[in-house]
Amino acid sequence: MEKVVCTLFSAREGDSLRDELIxxxxxxxxxxxxxxxxxxxxxDGAVALAAGRRMASQYLPKAVLSLWLDESRQLEALxxxxxxxxxxxxxxxxxxxxxxxxxxxxADGVTRGDGFCQVAFICRPGAMxxxxxxxxxxxxxxxxxxxxxSTFGYRQNYVVRALTDDAPEVxxxxxxxxxxxxxxSDHAFYAAEDDATLAQHQQAMMESCGRFxxxxxxxxxxxxxxxxQLAAP
Length: 233
Description:
Layout: E1 2-9, H1 14-30, E2 35-42, E3 63-69, H2 75-85, E4 88-100, E5 116-122, H3 130-148, E6 153-162, E7 172-178, H4 186-189, H5 195-209, E8 218-228
Antiparallel strand pairs: 1-3, 1-4, 2-3, 2-8, 4-6, 5-7, 5-8, 6-7
Helix pairs in contact: 1-2, 3-5
């Protein structure tokens, strides 16, 4: 089984796009035997308060669709479904690690998960060797991120390769689940009860991120999350 992350672009309003994705796109995808599971992250009205969390450098998709397929090449057969709902899309084959498992999002495909899911598209600094980058990101940084934020779900997607010819260069796609209060409150975001702890957590997180992220090439979107249970092989 392989995980494919698709970034969907559309000129449509977020709530309308979300409704079509949930009511039409997800059921159409799951009618294909090769689809073992689907996770949808879409920037809709429910995350409007988190607009200040957005970061833009290369591009900002309206939705991020994760597909678990028997083989990534089966994405080609699903392309007509994606093109019905999106003006365009990019796709990446990823290797997923889940240091913090989100157990709060129902797996029925129609119930919105708690809080919000922050999706970040990351590029490593150009001069940094890949193995050093992985060692920092998936090694020492992982615990720092968990300790300094209020996340209840944390997924690290290492991009193996792009599956669409025009996909922008991205080295990692990170999905982090936060409580709703963290949309607006930095204290809630950084799991800090007071200003001193907030400053400590912010500094530790930013210093750690600075070791492996090219901040001139990072995009971040707050989203609502929907999950469909993995099907049996």
